[in-house]
Amino acid sequence: MDFSSKLLENAVYEMSQLPGIGKRTALRLVLHLLKQPAEQTARLSGSLEQLRNTVRFCSNCYNISDTEICEICASPKRDRSLVCVVEDIRDVMAIENTSQFNGLYHVLGGKISPMEGVGPQELNIAPLIDKAKGGEIKELIFALSPTMEGDTTNFYMYKRLEGLDIRTSTIARGIAVGDELEYADEVTLGRSILNRIPFEGSLKS
Amino acid sequence: MDFSSKLLENAVYEMSQLPGIGKRTALRLVLHLLKQPAEQTARLSGSLEQLRNTVRFCSNCYNISDTEICEICASPKRDRSLVCVVEDIRDVMAIENTSQFNGLYHVLGGKISPMEGVGPQELNIAPLIDKAKGGEIKELIFALSPTMEGDTTNFYMYKRLEGLDIRTSTIARGIAVGDELEYADEVTLGRSILNRIPFEGSLKS
Asked: Zinc fingers (C4-type): which spans (chains A, B) (predicted)?
């Protein structure tokens, strides 16, 4: 693309560095900002800078937090013996939305992925093991996505936890509520039969 | 969505004000920035602010430009008697990419759209009429998108230009090069038959 303005070219280039934003979309977004009052651009760039420069992570669960300890970890109503291990803050938000979980979280910050150069030391796995050795935790729920990287990460954590008196579990894989059987993939359907649950168990929700 | 951090919520909100960016996408983009070095966020917000605060428009054609007169308007190689009227800067870039046009442009900044509260006075139509009255322009090409708003804008400009010794034209509508006839919509196919061109004319490209 040939730009008539160097400033415009710069802004479009930086915008297109965001994931899933190509040059054309970036140009559309930047031109939109130009049509809006200057305050909107100021608010956008200000809020991004402020977040990036003052962002803090809860020192217990590594969730993004404005305080030293996040609200969930600080709450006395939460079951501190149950910890759900997730990939990032979006998973915390998704699980919180279900209102079905009353324990604490531990945010790993990613999955082990040799292809992308992410090893165990890039993730918050060591603090998790330390926490587990503390003795307060009775059960760890591995709630990573069911991909090869997720399974690898689960297995690595499982191995590191060996010898500790802690139950480990993963979230149930199976047919999604409301899904048609015939459209489910074979692996999911196969697992949902292997890991079938007593009918009485399916009645509570 | 429940955010664990007010700063994060702010940044996601401002990001989601951009067109086509929902809350979920905004969250993904913001979390991506958090994983990158702080310099990337600084460059993004800096380039946006700089563009927004120092943006200038060519005083002749209203294209975005870093100088008083844009490169195209300043070029002595351009045919100043031929002016292509477009909606915004993206259209200038698209037409420039074809290398088929050697005249100047005039950027309206939008189309007349009563639904969105855009009337002729919100667009750069008055300066176009003034330029037309100057006598240098021999032909105006209306290159707006073939929608109801585009046609309305074309007709409005056409009416305002009445009495002036200027030819007006619109870009050709027809079957796109490489398209299959059977998949073309009726209106386009119908017009392409009505506005058929001598076969010799189709040989030059």
From this structure: 58-73
